[in-house]
Amino acid sequence: MRVATGQAPAEHRKGLLCAIASVVLVSIAQLAMRFGMAQVAIESLRALDSWSELSTALLQLSPSATLLPVIAGMLCYAVSVFCWMAALGRLPLNLA
Questions:
Q1: Which residues contact 54 (CB under 8 A, 6 or more apart)?
Q2: In this predicted structure, what is the pLDDT of residue 47?
Q3: Which residue, among 49, 73, 72, has the nearest Cα to 60 in the 3D structure?
């Protein structure tokens, strides 16, 4: 496969892999954050006797079960940004 911009085919393939990795990481991040935030909502509603105790209930949540997927999702978003930047550096803009 010949690239019209003068780039080597290996650079083109690396750019495509970075772009695909970015899309996969964003998808994983969205699913992880959705799961984590759903767990926060479920756990906080279980701990509530009334709506005025919401802040106290949120502070008493188990961080490993509820916040870990949210943090993992945010990290996936951050890594996907770097993958996308690498893809933009290796691919022509009309392909990226």
A1: 44, 48
A2: 58
A3: 49
